[in-house]
Amino acid sequence: MSGRGTHRAIEVQAEALGPVLYAGVAASVAATHARRKGLKHSKYPHLAPLLVRVELREFLESAVMPPGWDVGGEPWRMGQLLLVNQDLNLAMRVLKERRATYPNGVPVAGRNPSRRQAWTSDPLDLVWPSPASAGDADSATPVGRPAELVRLLLVWDFVSGTDLQEFTLRVVHTTDPGVYGQAVPCDLILDVKDGGEIFKSLEFTGSPENDDLFQPPAIEIDEEGGDLGS
Fold it and tell me: Which of 120, 154, 150, 203 lies closest to 7 in space, CA to CA?
C-alpha cells in the first residue's frame, strides 16, 4: 500500500461513520438543550460537554454502526466515550472543542500523562503495513492494519451566534500534545457535514470569535484518565 494508505483508510472509515455520527450528535445536542432548560450556561459550564457525550453514547449503542466499529470507553469516568475498530487498529475519542481558548479549537492534552501519550502520534504519511497482495488504497475495505493503534479525536462545538443547537463536527489526528495558547499540531482534519458528508481540510473555517460557554479548562483534563486503547 502506498504512503497515502493510512490517510485514505481513515477517510474511508470517516465516510462510513459520518451519517451515524452526525445524526447522533444532532440528536444529542437537541436532547442536551432540552435537559439544560432553565440552567444558566455560565453557572454550569460543564453540563453540555458531559450531557452530549452521555446522550451520544446512548444513541450509538442502539444505532447500526459500520462494520468493525464498537462503542467503548468508561462512561463512569465523566462520560468518557470512545469509538473503536479493533480490526483496523483505530480508536476515536469524543471531545468538545474550545475555539475561544485554543486556536483551531482542538483541546491540548494538558498534563495528564496518558492524554499526552494519546495526543502524540507519528505523522500519517507513514505506510500502513499490509500484505504484498493488498488491494487499492481507495477500496472500501483496506487490507492490513497499522502496527500500532492510530488515535483520532472526534471533536464538536456549537456554532457562534446560533441558539446553541447548530454545531460543527470534525475528525482530527494530532501529532503532539499541544501547548496552551497555540494550535495543536494535526496532520489530518476531516469535517463531517449535515448528512454525514466528509470534507478534507487542514484549516479551521469556523468563527474565530465563537464564545466557549461550556468548557472551562479543567473539564477536559479531569474528565478522563485512561488511554484511548483502554
Answer: 150
d(CA 63, CA 58): 9
Q: Which residue has the cell 477500496?
A: 139
pLDDT at residue 84 in the model: 97
- Cα separation, 4 vs 17, whole angstroms: 20
Is residue 225 helix, strand or coil? coil
Give all strands of the β-sheet with 167-174 in edge-to-edge order.
Answer: 69-72, 82-85, 90-96, 150-158, 167-174, 186-192, 198-201
Sign of CA dihedral 204, 205, 210, 214: negative
pTM of the full structure: 0.80
Q: What pLDDT score was predicted for residue 127? A: 55
CA distance 19 to 2: 28
Residue with cell 461513520: 17
Helices 5-35/47-61 angle, 10° precision: 110
